Amino acid sequence: MFSGIIEAVAKVTALHREGGNLHITLSAPFADELKIDQSVAHNGVCLTVVELLPGGYTVTAIDETLQKTNLGLLKVGDEVNLERSMRPDALLDGHIVQGHVDMTATCLEVKEADGSHVFRFGYEPGEGRITVEKGSVAVNGVSLTVVNSKEDGFEVAIIPYTYEHTNFHTFKPGSVVNIEFDIIGKYITKLMKNYR
User: From edge to edge, which strands make up the β-sheet containing 142-145?
Assistant: First the structure.
């Protein structure tokens, strides 16, 4: 489980396909603290560390993950948001993020707003794909508050710190991002459907 508070931004240093799998090697500031079999969220996707290297490590994404997320679009040199699993004694500064991305969305617009940035994202509407005004959503693993919630999209306002310390500064119209909708909203939607 994660909180959506990004610890670091990694750089992709190598990509290796093996059958339907993609082995992703990254350099990261806390790489030397990692252990084999540890879970780390990469752009919001929970992946297992499979190899340790000096100043870096490797994770493997299976075909299903590549189909549902933006990890299959990665190139060497790309920036990836990282978060290690939450400790039981840690503060929940963001919201409950499982690391199970629901789908990708497309950045439709980036606007400056008095020193901050407003990003508009769009996606294909469907069951369980809901946001609510002032609710939570994870975009590339970043816990954010929804504004202008629509059936097929939403906006988020990004403060300068988040803009500079995540890969949000690389987004432009057309950028593909990972979305994890709020788990509480997904459970309520499922319960209401069964109730009806």
Answer: 142-145, 136-139, 176-181, 103-113, 116-122, 153-158, 147-150
